[in-house]
Amino acid sequence: MARFSCFCLVLVTLLVGYTAGAEEHVARPFHGVTLRELTREEPRPLKIWIAEIDLAADGISFRVTPGNGDPNGEAPGDPNGETTRQTTLEFLQEQHAQLAINATFFGMRARNTDNTGLVVSDGQRVSPFRGDWPSINIDAQNQVAIVRGEHDTYRVTSPSSKLNLHNAITGSNQIVTDGSVTTDERKFSRALHPRTAIGYTADNRLILAVVDGRQPGVSEGMSLPELAQLMLENDCVQAVNLDGGGSTTMAIADPAARVLNTPCSKNGKGEFGTLRQNGTSLAVFARPATERETCK
């Protein structure tokens, strides 16, 4: 696993949530951004990365993967698809961003793909709402909201039809709602997988989380209820489960561009860490931290 560089690390031990203890490395590489790397022993080996973003900090902005194809989502057979798949690391580098995570579920059959749920990039409509799947929208003023809409359209039905869709991504489940866990105990939710989640706090912070999985003895993954608990531990009042599995990626450029976590896909030598080309990613732009900000 890659380690932080070019700034200080703080090692702490936590007694939080369902864990007996956790080793945590904390860094502040950018103004308004705190990164934490957690290693947990209970309830199983886990490697977790958390990015906490102060939405009011000067210089913070976002961008979702732009579209490449039919903006109305009416031609799923279109060879151009809605987006062109690329790794989250490639998107980070292409956008000259400071941080990025993978985002919406997508079809894996072709390089040009359609996405499962609402995707909007800087106001550009890319993929429409899917059923009642929850979406996260970040507007031009960095105001964040969970949004839902009319299936196969861009019509917002909640929280307000007047909401401005600006940068939006979609997940399969709203795992935290108004500060409470909102997952169930069905078989699929109990399965252990690599996970990616996004949420926000009552005091205007965006929380991005990736959990490595399918790596026996190193990081074995989380269930959806456990992921919800993780987001609650990080003060989320609302949170959504994004695409996980082999898609789970968090990348950083500080200034060297690299992937922080270890994706579960293997290369030809059987080594973990092969990057998947994802349908969408969410990029975070931030200013370098001052010397005072790098250590706590």
From TrEMBL:
InterPro entries listed in its UniProt record: NAGPA
Domain Phosphodiester glycosidase intervals: 96-282
Sorted UniProt keywords: Glycosidase, Hydrolase, Signal
Keyword Signal: yes
GO MF annotations, alphabetized: hydrolase activity, acting on glycosyl bonds
Signal peptide: 1-22
Region of interest (Disordered), ranges: 62-84
Name of this chain's protein: Phosphodiester glycosidase family protein
